[in-house]
Amino acid sequence: MSGVNIRDLSIAFGGHKVIEKLNLSVVEGEFLVLLGPSGCGKSTLLHSIAGLIEVSEGQIEIGGQDMTWAEPSERGIGMVFQSYALYPTMTVERNMSFGLRVNRVPKAEIEKRVARAAEILQLGPLLARKPSQLSGGQRQRVAIGRALVREAGVFLFDEPLSNLDAKLRGELRRELKLLHKNLGSTMIYVTHDQVEAMTLASRVVVMKSGQIQQIGTPAEVYEKPQNRFVAGFLGAPGMNFVDSRIEIENGQPVLRSPFALGLGDYDFQVKPQNGQAVTLGLRPEHISITPDGAWEAEIQLVEPMGNHQVLWLKAGDVLLSAVVHEALDFVADQRVRFTVDVKRVSLFDQGTEARL
Amino acid sequence: MATSRLKARLRGLTPWSALLPLAATVLVAYLGTALWSLWISVSNSRTFPGTEFVGLSQYERLFDNDRWQHALYNLGIYGVLFIAACMVIGFLLAVFIDQKVRGEGVLRVAFLYPYAMSFVATGLVWQWVLNPESGLQNAMQQLGWQGFTFDWIIDQDKVIYTVVIASVWQASGLVMALMLAGLRGIDVEIWKAAQLDGVPAWRVYLSVVLPMMGPTLATVFVLLSTAVVKAFDVVVAMTQGGPGTASDLPAKFIMDHLFGRANLALASAGAMTMLLTVLVIVAPLLYLRSRKKEGGHA
Amino acid sequence: MKKNGKRSHFTPARIGVYGFLLFSAAFFLAPLYIMLTTSFKSMDEIRLGQIFSLPHTLTFDAWRLAWSEACTGVACEGVRAGFWNSVRIAVPSTVLPILIGALNGYCLSFWRPRGANWLFGVLMLGAFIPLQVMIYPLVKLEAALGMYSSLTGIVVVHIIFSMPVMTLLFRNYYAAIPMELFKAARIDGGGFWRIFVQLMLPMSVPIVIVAAIMQITGVWNDYILGLVFAGRENLPMTVQLNNVINTTTGERLYNVNMAATMLTSAVPLLVYLVSGRWFVRGITAGAVKG
């Protein structure tokens, strides 16, 4: 089990800077997820930790040793790729043992490691099969098995579930979480799927354009997003954003338009200014439909989702989505009243997009 | 306006009428000629087609014929050397070009342009280059290597090797192009996985890449083999089958006997032998292919 | 590998790669170099026997002789006549096989008449039949039809021998076009020929280019078919080239020979240089044969 320390990392491709002065510490034993849209640099970062991409500047430390220029096979890591990258002409057993054989690991040791990995991943009956004879989920397990037999300190995952259908993705997600619980190894996981990030991570690193936007536990990044990008990226349906302006009345900050909202209970990180242009962020589940709610809206659309409903509310010029778990009947064009839990909302400065 | 059943039927014939050239070619030009040659090879034809069935006696005479035996011997040497050299050189060229070298485009042109030249031109150029008096041997001697000899082209035992050299020069570029396409079809992440496992590059090529290129290798082998069996132009241009008949090949033997020496049956027996050889090489591949995929729309 | 500092790009391995490639390139380019230099030398210089040297004085005489005065058998008019013969053979032998191949591919891919696949299968097999099996009966057949030793004769032969590859190219190309497109056209009222001419052919430009490149090169470089079927007045350039070089009496004019070889190879080499990618695409498509 190793930790990873990244200091002032910069990576450039042909003059184009993909990552600039990035700092990150991965704690031993944690499941760290790199989350972000395509092109944000998360895969590049992962591949540079693996040693598959050369860095321009900075340092990468794995298990306390400087591995910035080390070969991938010397870094004490295992990696699982998006397309599994299994050797198609070899059996499962040979796929897992190939690297060990090349490095002259004693035969007895190889057998021991392969057997252990096969047991953990339930690959026993599949050992003699070739990749073409396996299902998607089985192939992914073999890919994980190949990383496991290396007995590495850190495991890297490059969007391993994107090639699977939704149902399979859910199953393998749970298996991965169990795997981490049982092995306790350090795992760094790249994905663009926020559900995977939320369910698997001990900490989430949200990235955009080569920069880290926020690091925190899933709860932290979800409840207290530090900027508008993080707020909008997590959560489905996405957060509602309403532009407004802060006014200080009697020493208390409030919003006046599009509806009045007292901000006394809001946990400000930065002191608000009078007249400051802000964006109010409301998660759909923080909007409650109550008959004595302070504000009024007209239901534009109802989306029944089985165990909950999504209501699209038009309040004045603003369109908001709200999530309702109770089995109440709502119809389009119905007028309702709603309230907002001020303690749970987010406020962002319109200019800097940072959290207030 | 509803169409009568008759009209619909007639319209259904249109695709068939469009395929008439195909049908005619297949039935007459391919099947017809093959059957005709088969008949001739078991008949008593000489200058003109004969009318008697003589069993396999023509084949016996063929395989007793010294010149044919020598042609077969040459074919064996030529075939083995040509195929081996082309595949090895082609593979190496493809592997090296695939190493992200600069000027890949120019290098590819350099390797592949010989394939654009006719066999005749190839044979003629190499005949000139390997000419002992004015070609390579002479030039090397003039440059200082007095003892350098390269007179294979007039040496009865070695002339077939010169034909091999010329042919390999022409065809290696094609093999390279095919292998390069095969190499590039390999998933990039497999390379990364191997790199992570600490597998050295040569070992990856040997244990992972080559097995994955099985279909490509098979295709190339079949292509080269059929080219070997059909080799004619290059021999005519380079050595005219000589000195004497030292560099004779079956294709030339057959052509000579069809038109020059006017022994139809013997030539046809030779032709049928060639056909059999080709079918033996090709049939397994075609069978596997047709089972794997059904082309066209399902 | 080093742990301290960047990985160097000039490893021995890298140098070896470039070395091998450059050495190989030299081997492949050497004959071309020799051809060109020889063709520009005078006979006196050639007799000195230094094939690797550059010409001391550039003379274009050899080229002129090769083009218009070299002896190709009976006549001594250079390979010029052969050039035009090759053109007259190549044009119809490219256009017609492409049209027929497209028609076959279209028919097999979209209409799929019963039993047509069997025909196609035999055609594919037929592509491997050595031409020595076919050549004599074809000669007799053409003679019976009165087209032996004529331009028609050689074009028909080229059509026959190129049909497998052409049909395969187009069939595979049309297989990638969605069947829904074809069905939509039929619903719109298109018949067999209209769909072919107005829909499929215009969509076939890429594959037509590939087919044309393959066919032009193949026909131009053909020797044996032209020798047997074209007739004395239509002998293609390759046949005349061989005559110039291998059937001369008296002193062999090597510079003329090399010039003639260059002239004969000019067209396909030009096609190759211009078409680059398409050429390779053609070979890989046709050579893979299914």
Structure description:
- The complex is a heterotrimer of chains A (356), B (298) and C (290).
- Chain A is built from eight helices and 20 strands.
- Chain A is α+β, with helices and mostly antiparallel strands.
- Chain A has two domains: 4-227, P-loop containing nucleotide triphosphate hydrolases (Rossmann fold), CATH 3.40.50; 240-349, OB fold (Dihydrolipoamide Acetyltransferase, E2P) (Beta Barrel), CATH 2.40.50.
- In chain A, the strands form four sheets. Chain A has a six-stranded mixed β-sheet, with helices on both faces. A five-stranded antiparallel β-sheet of chain A has the order 13-12-11-14-20.
- In chain A, strand 7 (154-158), helix 5 (166-183) and strand 8 form a beta-alpha-beta unit.
- Chain B has one domain (55-290): MetI-like fold, CATH 1.10.3720.10.
- Chain B is mostly helical.
- Chain B has helices at residues 5-12, 14-18, 20-41, 57-64, 66-97, 104-116, 119-129, 136-142, 159-184, 188-196, 201-212, 214-230, 233-238, 250-260, 264-292.
- In chain B, helix 5 packs parallel to helix 9, helix 7 crosses helix 9 and helix 12 packs antiparallel against helix 15.
- With 290 residues, chain C is mostly helical.
- Chain C contains 14 helices and no strands.
- The longest helix of chain C is centred in the first third of the chain and has 32 residues, at 80-111.
- The model of chain C is unreliable at 1-5 (pLDDT under 50).
- The chains are: A alpha+beta (356), B mainly alpha (298), C mainly alpha (290).
- Chains B and C meet through helix 2, helix 3, helix 5, helix 6 and helix 7 of B and helix 1, helix 4, helix 5, helix 6 and helix 7 of C.
